């Protein structure tokens, strides 16, 4: 990094690219019940389709970025994101939306994946964890503003407008990439044949320590996506909360993530990544158990979901940063693009599990969502504890 000014803009642009996931999902969450009624299909499958494309495409982009650098794949990915968003906006059936969501994801995945790779190119160990926490703090505005903006657009227009917004935002990100430095110089790029690059995924999977850290955050993301996918139905359809207020209920969780990410910047200087991961996953597990108990017995109504879910979701500010940094510490420089691809593929692809499970039920109730969250937060804690 050449200067503080450069560092700030570097982080700001990477935060925008990291926000591709939030931009692709959170902004249209308030529209899902409306889309389901108008298009006569399961709106959860639009998230499932997106996550399938998101997971698979990362495994392809990872080796490519290790060979040709980070910026060119970012340009191509953002172009795909623009086209996919326009396709969704012009869709007339749920099946069309799902197909275009898959295509959209093949580009959207590049932003978060290569943002993490660029951080690991430049920073190491606890410094990388601090920088990842910085990204989370800066990008926290996206999932807060997203549902609010989506709800506001529904008040004045149709759900199609939301995807036009995605197209405009991704086009703006395409322009911002011009201002990023290339963080992977020629001498550090992979020289091995592409087929060997793909084989290296098996090497990573066999690395027990790398996989335990990766699985810990993967299981947490399954729980998080159960909330992301199901919360609009629980709040809007089950509890009868107007869609324009949904963004506030969702956004309070993101404020918790941002606060914990800010705190994590100090904690990584005092405690090991492993101890922070175990502690944060333990807090999330206790909160998930409370969430399940309150929804099972029907206690406290909507507050029985809002309060414990805040503590579960907020732990992402520590769990994601520490587990990602700890996992990447296990791999050499020339494999970090592929390692990030595998981490991202498992993290976001795991959301297929929760969105598909929710889609199996004709109605999404607080109990169904809470049970899924409890099971996978427990597995997150278990994976973290096994690295002790």
UniProtKB/TrEMBL annotation:
The Major facilitator superfamily (MFS) profile domain is annotated at: 1-388
Q: Which residues cross the membrane?
A: 7-25, 45-62, 74-92, 98-119, 131-149, 161-181, 219-239, 245-263, 275-299, 305-327, 339-361, 367-386
State one molecular function term (GO). xenobiotic transmembrane transporter activity
**Has keyword Transmembrane helix?**
yes
Sorted alphabetically, the keyword list is: Cell membrane, Membrane, Transmembrane, Transmembrane helix, Transport
Tell me where it mainly resides. Answer: membrane
Location relative to the cell: Cell membrane
**Which NCBIfam families has this protein been placed in?**
efflux_Bcr_CflA
Output the Gene Ontology cellular-component terms. Answer: plasma membrane
Q: How does it sit in the membrane?
A: Multi-pass membrane protein
How is this protein named in the record?
Answer: Multidrug effflux MFS transporter
Query: What protein family does this chain belong to?
Result: Belongs to the major facilitator superfamily. Bcr/CmlA family.
The keyword Signal appears for this protein: no
Q: Which Pfam families match?
A: MFS_1
An example GO BP is:
xenobiotic detoxification by transmembrane export across the plasma membrane
Q: PANTHER family this protein is in? A: MAJOR FACILITATOR SUPERFAMILY, POLYAMINE TRANSPORTER 2-RELATED
Which InterPro entries does the record cross-reference, listed alphabetically? Efflux_drug-R_Bcr/CmlA (IPR004812), MFS (IPR011701), MFS_dom (IPR020846), MFS_trans_sf (IPR036259)
